[in-house]
Amino acid sequence: MRATLLGVLGLALLGALQAEDGVPVQPDFQQDKLTGKWYTIGLASNSNWFKEKKHLMKMCTTVISATADGNLEVVSTYPKGDHCEKRNSLYTKTEQPGRFSYTSPRWGSKHDIHVVETNYDEYALVATQISKSSGSSTMVLLYSRTKELSPERLERFTQFSREQGLAEEEILILPHTGEDLGLQE
To answer: PANTHER family from the entry (predicted)?
Structure first.
């Protein structure tokens, strides 16, 4: 009886923690289908760096590949001035498929990453809770397999970003780069 009660309490606590998190994860997430090249079409965030830099941001490419131990290597290439920069990140899998963690070696921030929804061959909506000593922030990314995405997908990104508490001025559809620096097909 006592073991049953503890089990029920454990499940209730787990359910409460998941409900408290409030960020969904793609049902039946299939990590292998998420790999490959993506364009970052949309970015939303309430972080200070985003507010300071959003007028400079442009579309970038992101290549996601699986590591031998089941994590994800994420390499983003983005235009910066007259050249391109690359940022490598290692997303560590968690017990929940579609949810990853990452700690920035540069800033020491901890990232709780959710693949919210995707159909794998067109778009992916990814939400990240970022925690650091100075506070926390939310970031939502909209990935696309092509440089264009339907108005319905763009609206879904905007709607989801608002659901995460982000204001209209914190939501950005990224402009294409004029010369397509580093973004060749």
So the answer is: LIPOCALIN, PROSTAGLANDIN-H2 D-ISOMERASE
Angle at CA 160, nearest 5°, toward 159 and 164? 120
- Identity of the residue numbered 185: E
pLDDT bucket at 129, cuts 50 / 70 / 90: very high
Distance CA 39, CA 28 (A): 23
| Annotated active-site residue in 59, 60, 171, 183 | 60
Tell me how far apart the alpha carbons of residues 38 and 42 are, in angstroms, rounded to a whole number: 12
Q: Which CATH class is domain 31-173?
A: mainly beta
pLDDT tens-digit series, residues 155-172: 999 999 999 999 999 999
**Is 90 exceeded by the pLDDT of residue 21?**
no
Residue 107 carries which DSSP code?
A: T
C-alpha distances (whole Å) from 51 to each of 23, 45, 56 are 23, 8, 10
* Residue ranges covered by each domain of the chain: 31-173
Active site residue 60: yes
User: Is the per-residue pLDDT at 96 higher than 70?
Assistant: yes
Q: What is the mean pLDDT of residues 82-96?
A: 90
Cα–Cα distance, 47 to 170 (Å, whole number): 9
User: What does the alpha-carbon distance between residue 139 and residue 118 come to, in Å, rounded to a whole number?
Assistant: 17
